[in-house]
Amino acid sequence: MQIKDLGEFGVIDLLTRMVIDQRAGPGNGQSFSFNITVDNGDDTAAWSPGPNTINELFTTDTMVEGVHFTRETTPWQDLGWKSVASNISDVAAMGGLPNYALVTLGLPPETEVSDLESLYEGMLQVSNEYGLAIVGGDIVRSPVVFITVALTGVMQGQPLLRTGARPGDLVAVTGYLGSSGGGLKLMLAGRSEDGEAADYLRESHRRPRPAIAAGQSLAEAGITTAMDVSDGMVGDLSKLCWASGVSGKIFADRLPVHPFLSSRFPEDCVELALGGGEDYVLLFTGRPAKVNHVVSGLSGGAAVIGELSEGEPGKIKVVDSQGKEIPAGKWGWDHFGPAQN
Prior knowledge:
- The chain is an alpha+beta fold.
- It has two domains: 3-16 and 26-156, CATH 3.30.1330.10; 170-319, Phosphoribosyl-aminoimidazole Synthetase, Chain A, domain 2 (Alpha-Beta Complex), CATH 3.90.650.
- It contains ten helices and twelve strands.
- The chain has helices spanning 3-22, 76-93, 113-129, 179-188, 196-206, 212-220, 233-244, 259-264, 269-275, 288-296; strands spanning 35-38, 45-48, 54-64, 97-107, 133-141, 146-156, 170-173, 225-228, 247-251, 282-286, 303-309, 316-319.
- A six-stranded mixed sheet has the order 1-2-3-6-4-5, with helices on one face. A six-stranded mixed sheet has the order 8-10-7-11-9-12, with helices on both faces.
- Helix 3 links the parallel strand 4 and strand 5 (133-141).
- It is globular, with a radius of gyration of 20 Å.
- Residues 27-33 and 333-341 have low confidence and may be disordered.
């Protein structure tokens, strides 16, 4: 069997079970180490530095040229922004705030110094805006550009998890879906378009804005289950439902789609909202009264889009306004799944 036969999430599940089942103990650290409070399998790991309500968060993410980006669609400065923003988004999904980052770069020797400077300018811009400090890292020679960011954060109280969803919960998101996918689709078409809509879509893909404030609002409101939408709405809800042992339903007509996306891609906007990925809004669940109350206090496309029920863990059904199921499309990103054009 090859890893492509398992798919990305099957590989993650395999490795998660191995590291938990085969290590010497829950923490497997020194006697003075912190206690793990969130283990493998969530947006971040978490540990408590003492007998208080503070949790330290830790996450990492890698962007590889030709897999996550191309130089034609993502300028160096935007690449720097996005590589850090994706990690900040994981911290946002736990209800936390970012602290420090280590950056590992893989660079071909022919890389221009000016391009490296632009990359770090983007990293510093997003770091300064969100209160993060880059404190070190590593550089290696590589045939293609890759960037790995390891980031720490902090959370007051219990982090938001993927494992707390229950049958009867509503499913909601904190912002618009599909805009990043629309930006990529626009750029891959090879046409240089001007105008407010084109600028918005490109910016959504190149410079996502982590939902730190929304994550704080969810935690303060007593929401306990959330994650960020990075691999596509359907795929990410499936991961949350699998972790919680429930099934989910998405109402396609309730998906929050920005007017710029629906005007530019009227026939594709729903598919982009379901599986475009890299929107970095937060997906969350909870009892109906609480979720409706929270959504009413959020802005920028926040909406209730579905509900959870008993059934096959991780199974997601998408239905139209008449309740008719929509056949599954290419919804979500899987690094080891079949190639997608």
